[in-house]
From TrEMBL:
Name of the coding gene: coaE
Alphabetized PANTHER family for the sequence: BIFUNCTIONAL COENZYME A SYNTHASE-RELATED, DEPHOSPHO-COA KINASE-RELATED
EC number per UniProt: 2.7.1.24
The keyword Kinase belongs to this UniProt entry's keyword annotation: yes
Protein name, as recorded: Dephospho-CoA kinase
InterPro entries reported in the protein's UniProt record: Depp_CoAkinase, P-loop_NTPase
One Pfam assignment: CoaE
Signal sequence, start to end: none
Pathway(s) where this gene product acts: Cofactor biosynthesis; coenzyme A biosynthesis; CoA from (R)-pantothenate: step 5/5
Function, in words: Catalyzes the phosphorylation of the 3'-hydroxyl group of dephosphocoenzyme A to form coenzyme A.
Length: 214
């Protein structure tokens, strides 16, 4: 049986436009790997997957494109058709969350059992980490620490509109449905300020690595 590396698993989170991808890229320059749960969420509903089959069984063939891939827009419209009815969203989460967790844990084990991965930490980017804690009452069992990327709402709106091409109204709607800055701070083991420039964020990355390698 492979020997496991002693790795601290970091749950990295933050609201839209807070810079999670940029932070992961900066850490990667120092050899720190990250697992992206957004990518895993897409992986578990790829054509031919059990996840996609379960989604179709729950919501019908209308959530598929002609090439049998998932039509995310159709699914989104279906589960959010009635803002007061959360049953569709809850059914979807009941299907996807266990699959996402299972794959996330599998990827974590790969790093833990890889003798060539010698970093003391591993990032797991979970955009809605705090939202999940608020709903279920606890973080995922595989998380050792929670790091929160934080910036002002004004900065979030500016970055998200430049990156996604979304309107300010659309971004504000997303913000209203995410955890607040105060709620994230409540669960944070470390707060990372990303309200300034890239150099400021880089200095924080370097300081975090110094602390972990001390």
């Amino acid at each position: 049986m492979p020997t496991e590396n002693k790795i601290t698993v970091i749950g990295l989170t933050g609201g839209i436009g807070c810079g999670k991808s940029t932070f992961c890229d900066l850490m990667a320059e120092h050899g720190v790997a990250h697992i992206d749960t957004d990518q895993i969420a897409r992986l578990v509903v790829e054509p031919g997957s059990d996840g996609l089959q379960m989604v179709v069984e729950a919501f019908g063939e209308g959530v598929l494109n002609q090439d049998k891939t998932l039509n995310r827009q159709a699914l989104r419209q279906l589960i959010f058709a009635d803002a007061k009815d959360q049953s569709g969203r809850e059914r979807l989460e009941a299907i996807l969350h266990p699959l996402i967790q299972q794959e996330t844990e599998r990827q974590i084990r790969q790093y833990q059992e890889n003798p060539n991965y010698r970093q003391p930490l591993l990032l797991v980017a979970i955009p809605l980490l705090v939202e999940g804690i608020l709903k279920r009452g606890h973080p995922p069992s595989y998380i050792d620490e929670i790091w929160v990327l934080d910036c002002s709402e004004e900065t979030q709106i500016t970055r998200a509109s430049q990156r996604d091409g979304a309107t300010i109204e659309q971004i504000k709607t997303i913000l209203a449905n995410q955890a607040s800055r105060q709620q994230r701070r409540q669960y944070a083991d470390k707060m990372i300020d990303n309200d300034q420039d890239l150099a400021h964020l880089q200095k924080q990355v370097e300081q975090l690595l110094i602390e972990f390698n001390a």
